[in-house]
Amino acid sequence: MMTKKLSILQLCNKPPFPPMDGGAIGMHNVSQGIIDAGHQLKILSFSSNKHRLDIDKLPKDYIKSTGIEAVDIDLSIRILPALYNLLYSRNSYNISRFNSKEMQFKLKELLSKESFDIIQLESIFLKDYLPLIRKFSQAKVVLRAPNVEFVIWQRLAQIEKNPIKRFYLSILAKRLRKEEVAALNSFDAIYTVTERDMQLMRSLGATVKMTFIPTGVDVNKDLTTDFDAVEYPSVFHLGALDWSPNIEGVKWMLNQVWPSLHGRFPKLKFYIAGRRPPQWLQELKEDGVVVVGEVEDAGAFIKSKAIMPVPLFSGSGMRVKIIEAMMLQKAVVSTGIGIEGIIHENGENVLIANDATAFIDSIALLVENKDLYRRIAINAKYNANKFYSNKVLNAKLMEFFYSL
After folding, report:
1. Residue 401: its H or E element
2. What pLDDT score was predicted for residue 399?
3. What confidence score (pLDDT) does residue 77 get?
4. Fewer CB in a 10 Å sphere around the end CB: N or C, the chain?
5. pLDDT by residue (tens digit) across 167-202?
6. 115: helix, coil or strand?
7. Chain region(s) in the chain for CATH 3.40.50.2000
């Protein structure tokens, strides 16, 4: 196996730092793995109205080790462009929003000056930059696929009750599927974060070199846990509150689960934390519900709480926050979709619940039975440490890169 030092460009659809949400954590883990392995890393990222990157505020050692640069883009959903796309185009609106002349110029300038062994695209949404990359670089182009994106939109369409919205989401999903599938064999290699997504891509016709590498947790972080420091019982959500599947799950918890739980356990609190909570959530006044919003230290917040429900009914890929919660000795109650791609054993290190009654019963069981709560939490930490250490996963990634 080759062991030469590699030069790697990481092209990001949003800033990988600070690693505050699952998407950023996944990208940052890759960045850190490349640096730790002694390779040369360059990061070129979009900076949007939704995910702003202020390079001047980044740690100096991070700037030095990544050479990070950013291109501004407005990713606001605009009615007229969306309507024009719907009526007069057959292209995916999700992908076309990432098409930027400024990024094309910056990428061309960078590739004309620097030579790379590997260029990694962090999302299928960046696939339209492939022709330019091929023209100005001889690098192997790798897609890191944290999700099969069209699956998310298919699931959102399936559960949408408004017929007009459902129709529009279905069109978005169909167009995205067409372009996502057509692009798979344009890359030199692809790695997903779950085996399930890799198998799905294979079934859709992907023939390029593939593997799956889960998103892990940095075991060098402070992962100490103390049951005595936990607010038990307590229920919490932590995840980006501007991501549709998360908001959909929070709404479902508030409408279908919380009223019954609060009735049975009047002193129980449900903490809702995450970036960019919508206005209706910021203004929510409901007994026992505490809307925290963005937290400075996600790890400290997770450590302080006991039970993490994951009522996800759409999405793809792997929920990084579940891994982090398990690593920090939390009891997780999740839908089957929420836990997809994560090695687990129902009843041993997680509880699976796929409807409101099952969620209510599972959380109630953990509230009433402290011994069960502790057993699930301890087993969860052991499981996460065993399978999701960044050190092990980064070694697999480097082996994959050298095989190209």
Report:
1. helix 390-402
2. 94
3. 83
4. N
5. 999 999 999 999 999 999 999 999 999 888 999 999
6. coil
7. 7-79+92-150+177-215+390-402, 227-387
Q: What are residue 144's DSSP bridge partners?
A: 191
* Angle subtended by helix axes 163-183 and 149-159, to nearest 10: 160
CA 75 – CA 237 distance, rounded (Å): 26
CA–CA gap between residue 338 and residue 336 (Å, rounded)? 5
Judge whether 233 and 367 are in contact, CB under 8 Å. Answer: yes
Tokens 């730092």 locate to 17
Question: Which of 402, 30, 397 lies closest to 212, judged by CA?
Answer: 397
What's the CATH class of domain 7-79+92-150+177-215+390-402?
alpha beta
Q: Give the DSSP letter string of 146-184.
A: SS-HHHHHHHHHHH--SHHHHHHHHHHHHHHHHHHHHHG
> Rounded to a whole number, what is the distance in angstroms from the first to the last CA of the chain?
11
Q: Top-level CATH class of 227-387?
A: alpha beta
235-238: strand order across its sheet: 289-293, 270-273, 235-238, 307-310, 331-334, 351-352
At 352, list the tokens: 């699976």
In whole angstroms, give the CA distance from residue 21 to residue 49.
Answer: 16
Q: Which two tokens stand for residue 385?
A: 């440490």
The whole-angstrom separation of Cα 263 and Cα 269 is 12
* 137 vs 162: CA distance, rounded Å: 46
* Residues 6 or more apart in contact with residue 24 via CB below 8 angstroms: 14, 15, 16, 17, 18, 51
Query: What's the pTM?
Result: 0.77
Helix (H, G, I), strand (E, B) or coil at 54: coil
Q: What 3-state DSSP class applies to 117?
A: coil
DSSP H helical ranges for 212-319: 244-252, 258-264, 279-282, 298-304
